[in-house]
Design brief:
- It is built from eleven helices and nine strands.
- A hairpin with a 2-residue loop joins strand 4 and strand 5.
- Helix 6 crosses helix 7.
- The relative contact order is 0.12.
Length: about 260
């Protein structure tokens, strides 16, 4: 591989863990993918992207409903890219970054162009990479020349370990004190760091993981809705259905019919 390679993909629910010898940019125009790298885990969505340096081990699981742009950037191709030295600094460490509305709309437009004219993928990729570079260069927290605030906070929270523990205890009453203890932090300090890193309170994040797991079961299993509710920690099917509708704007039974 010696040129920029841009692909439009749907990342499925299979767990993937690997590393590769090229940099990678991942942007989603819709849906979500859980991705862990460098001791930090986040959801890649329409307003959250990630930069993966070459040889960095990472793991991901998609929701099967996403539309994702994956840009592979071989080191040998950087010399031909404008502002290549600055772009190289984007990949000095694994990082997640905020995607503003304008960049998300550009990604969506470029995805459509890529699907219509796949032969132009390298030119479209260069335009996308340039737009990202200009966006991060303007960020006040040093998206190009310094370590992002998200990464600094992520070093204090092992999100991958937290996610694994939460997923193993979805049927239980999960308390913030338990999560804080896993990170050897006081409850108050953990709450502050967690919200700063993820944008969610710990309780809201646990609820989200419960419901995302439930959606997978609703769409890909024949378990009754009452059984699913009990598996993810809801006391009754009614409260589960109400929470599900608030999160996904469709009832569990409606989601099962759509799928």
């Amino acid at each position: 591989m010696s040129f920029l390679e841009l692909k439009s993909r749907i990342l499925g629910p299979e767990h993937v863990a690997h590393a590769h010898d090229y940099h990678q940019l991942i942007l989603a125009t819709c849906g979500a993918t859980e991705l862990a790298m460098g001791g930090c885990a986040e959801r890649v969505t329409g307003n959250r992207g990630c930069l993966i340096p070459c040889t960095s081990h990472h793991e991901f699981v998609g929701d099967g409903r996403n539309r994702t742009l994956v840009l592979d950037i071989p080191l040998s191709s950087l010399a031909s890219v404008r502002d290549s030295s600055g772009i190289e600094r984007l990949f000095d460490k694994p990082r997640f970054f905020s995607v503003p509305t304008g960049l998300n709309e550009l990604a969506g437009s470029l995805m459509r162009q890529l699907e219509q004219c796949p032969a132009l993928h390298s030119e479209i990729a260069a335009l996308l990479l340039r737009a990202l570079y200009l966006h991060l260069k303007a960020e006040p927290h040093g998206g190009v020349d310094g370590l992002s605030l998200t990464h600094q906070t992520g070093e204090r929270l092992d999100m991958q370990r937290l996610d694994i523990w939460i997923d193993r205890h979805l049927a239980d009453d999960i308390r913030v004190e338990q999560l804080a203890a896993l990170c050897a932090l006081s409850t108050g300090h953990f709450h502050h760091c967690f919200r700063h890193l993820t944008g969610y309170t710990p309780q809201a994040y646990v609820q989200l993981r419960r419901l995302e797991h439930a959606r997978s079961l609703v769409c890909h299993s024949t378990l009754s809705l009452g059984h699913i509710a009990s598996l993810i920690g809801f006391r009754d099917q009614g409260s589960f259905s109400r929470a599900y509708r608030r999160q996904f704007e469709v009832s569990p039974s409606g989601d099962r019919r759509i799928d």
